[in-house]
């Protein structure tokens, strides 16, 4: 009876949050539908604390995307549409989390909690390192060659961005611990290392294979097919590999690596 009552309250809170997310323009309507689907699978598979961990990700990345947004927009590098994330972005960042939450529900193996936590930590670390990296006073370096490149090139890393990303990963691991999702130190260590592997792979794919475009109006390097309302020219990478594909694969590989690490550590 109490559980049923709690579930109704949880669903009501989710509906209120969904309306708030659309009103605040954090996500577009399709993004909100996909986020709700991800939220429900996490609630179903991991429970309320899993959902709270997902909210920590949303809250941290929302605050840091908005943080000094106008400064980031001045250089044309901030997320387009006022920081609103599109459904493709939500799907790429959340679907792996959903899959591990569901696989935990069906298989009930403790070890599956670790790629679940890792996947959220990678999405958090990647978003934070991008958003904070944009504010770095120094020119970024390409992860593959360590040569200085223009800001906005995918696979470009800064010291500030990388440290912020790692701090983002650590905060998700800490929340996972205090929310009692998992409290095995070895497992959480594997999640943390898996998270760092994930953001490194993300940058590496960003540098090596992701499509980078050049704006025909302002010559700015961009990950986007459209800049200054015009189609951009492909400069390097493959046209069909965009930031979402890179996110999806780096989250998947990083999350799986946390499982392999557990077998290595123990
Ligand atoms: Zn432009």
Write the layout of secondary structure elements.
Blueprint: H1 2-23, H2 29-45, H3 48-66, H4 69-74, H5 87-107, H6 113-133, E1 141-142, E2 156-157, H7 159-178, H8 185-208, E3 212-214, E4 221-222, E5 226-227, E6 230-231, E7 233-236, H9 243-265
Antiparallel strand pairs: 1-2, 3-4, 3-7, 5-6
Describe this structure in words.
With 266 residues, the protein is mainly alpha-helical. It has one domain. Helices cover 65% and strands 6% of the residues. The protein contains 9 helices and 7 strands, in the order ααααααββααβββββα. The protein has helices at residues 2-23, 29-45, 48-66, 69-74, 87-107, 113-133, 159-178, 185-208, 243-265; strands spanning 141-142, 156-157, 212-214, 221-222, 226-227, 230-231, 233-236. A 3-stranded antiparallel sheet has the order 4-3-7, with no helix packed on it. Helix 3 runs parallel beside helix 6. It is globular and about 55 Å long. The N and C termini lie far apart (41 Å). The mean pLDDT is 89. Bound molecules: zinc ion. The site of zinc ion has 7 residues, from loops.
Please give the largest β-sheet.
Answer: 3 strands, antiparallel
Written as H for each helix and E for each strand, in order along the chain, the element string is HHHHHHEEHHEEEEEH
Number of domains: 1
Termini separation? 41 Å
Total strands: the figure is 7
Tell me the helix content. 55-70%
Work out the helix count: 9
Ligands (ions, cofactors included) = zinc ion
Structural class: mainly alpha
Shape: globular
**Largest sheet: spatial strand order:** 4-3-7
Strand content: 5-15%
Mean pLDDT: 89
Low-pLDDT residue intervals, each spanning 5 or more residues: none
Rg measurement, Å = 18 Å
């Amino acid at each position: 009876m109490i559980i049923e009552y709690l579930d109704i309250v949880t669903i009501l809170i989710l509906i209120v949050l969904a309306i708030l997310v659309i009103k605040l323009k954090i996500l577009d309507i399709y993004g909100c539908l996909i986020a709700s689907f991800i939220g429900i699978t996490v609630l179903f598979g991991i429970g309320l604390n899993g959902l709270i961990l997902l909210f920590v990700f949303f809250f941290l990345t929302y605050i840091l995307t908005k943080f000094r947004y106008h400064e980031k927009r001045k250089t044309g590098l901030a997320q387009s549409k006022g920081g609103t994330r599109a459904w493709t972005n939500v799907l790429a960042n959340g679907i792996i989390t959903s899959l591990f939450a569901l696989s935990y529900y069906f298989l009930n193996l403790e070890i599956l909690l670790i790629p679940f936590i890792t996947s959220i930590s990678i999405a958090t670390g990647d978003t934070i390192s991008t958003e904070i990296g944009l504010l770095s006073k120094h020119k970024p370096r390409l992860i593959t060659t360590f040569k200085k490149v223009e800001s906005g090139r995918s696979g470009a890393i800064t010291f500030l961005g990388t440290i912020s990303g790692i701090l983002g990963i650590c905060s998700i691991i800490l929340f996972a611990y205090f929310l009692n999702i998992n409290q095995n130190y070895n497992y959480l260590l594997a999640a943390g290392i898996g998270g760092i592997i994930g953001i490194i792979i993300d940058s590496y794919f960003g540098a090596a294979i992701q499509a980078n475009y050049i704006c025909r109006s302002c010559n700015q390097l961009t990950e986007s097919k459209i800049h200054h309302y015009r189609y951009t020219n492909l400069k390097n990478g493959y046209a069909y590999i965009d930031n979402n594909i890179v996110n999806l694969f780096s989250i998947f590989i990083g999350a799986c690596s946390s499982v392999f690490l557990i077998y290595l550590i123990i």
